[in-house]
């Protein structure tokens, strides 16, 4: 693990919207930003101490969930320092303290697949009789810097909106994962999906965000899941390679830490590392056919991280739908409410088989998104 050059003010320019969307009130973010002067140090104006103070303030006021989110901001963007690793431990402790008040049923488990994978389960509270059937399962996975506890709001909303059992996990190389990010790290996720399918006896899908969406596409093309959503995932399908070392906001260092390397890779090393992730080079596009699973691919048309070809290049594959969102960036946060409503309908229709209602819900849920679909959108109901 290593630190790397990044200006905290620049990082907050880019991430303030995200922190607020995850559940940290804007005044808290603004207060922290006004005090932060250094990214990696330990002084009073350094990133971790400032966010730690906000976490402790939230905890003292009786809000352990907000404390957990602030500890999550403290450990951001990666576990490159001792105080960030400690912040993640505080985040988990505060999160579990907050869990009894969650508006859904919650359970934490560590599944061996065979590597240990901590999983957070969320399920809608069921009312009345005749609704005891086991729901389908959706694995929720974030990217290189936004992890399962950070995605609490999305996990709860997905469980409540779809009725599915949400299993939130950290992507390999991040969070509580014990293995580095690597082209074959999908073996962990394949093992997890298989174990969930055996345990629950229901269809299992995968909802991946940012780099986590890379695995959504891979698992769907290989037929390991019953359905998958790729929201902003790099796939290596385009002839335009991702110039990782020139990506903004510290992304080269963030990815390098997920790869578990000890220093910033040089250009040739990083090119070799990234080439291994290409789904085209792995032959998955050639193999994808009858065994492929339904795949929904979504991203903003103006993503600065992932080439558009990585998204639209999947159009035309069996059972693949592509939504390109106009005037939106990486993972289309500008239209998150419309995107999530539409993809929840899409997931419910595929992971709750034998029920006519989810298909109708899918059609209705997609309507608010239609005006924002841009060039490159393709497939059923695009």
What descriptors fit this protein?
alpha/beta; globular; 8-stranded mixed sheet; hydrolase; 382 residues; de novo design (two linked rop proteins); Rossmann fold
How are the elements arranged and paired?
Layout: H1 8-22, H2 26-35, H3 47-60, H4 64-75, H5 82-98, E1 105-112, E2 116-123, E3 137-141, H6 152-162, E4 165-169, H7 186-200, E5 204-209, H8 211-221, E6 227-231, H9 251-258, H10 267-275, H11 284-287, E7 295-300, H12 309-312, E8 320-325, H13 336-351, H14 356-366
Parallel strand pairs: 3-4, 3-5, 5-6, 6-7, 7-8
Antiparallel strand pairs: 1-2, 2-4
Helix pairs in contact: 1-2, 3-4, 4-5, 13-14
Please report the first level of CATH classification, the CATH class of the largest domain.
Answer: Alpha Beta
Report how far apart the termini are: 42 Å
Number of strands: 8
Note the main sheet: 8 strands, mixed
